[in-house]
Amino acid sequence: LRLLPQQTQLRAETAAATGAFERKRNVLCCLITRILKAEKRLHVDNLVFRVMDACQKGGSGPGLQFLSFCCHSVDVLSCVLRLLSQGHLRRQPGRPQVLEF
């Protein structure tokens, strides 16, 4: 019977993937916040398209430069729900599809 060493490489890859996920989520939340700060109020569909466009272009104005990456509408909507639950965003009364900062 031989004991195998613990798989530290697998743990490192998992930690790296988790870190990459957190960075991506943070960038998306920053983009959502930045776009809504400028617009004050925006339909959720327009917000999703603007965030996805900014991700493909690789930035959203001065001060927020990052490498372009692929994001999906599900990623953006997940971040929108997170920001709503944290109280950073709110829905417009009577029009829940319109978000306000």
From TrEMBL:
Signal peptide: none annotated. InterPro entries: Cullin, Cullin_neddylation_domain, WH-like_DNA-bd_sf, WH_DNA-bd_sf. Residues 20-97 form the Cullin neddylation domain. It comes from the Eukaryota. This is CUL9 protein. The lineage of its organism: Eukaryota, Metazoa, Chordata, Craniata, Vertebrata.
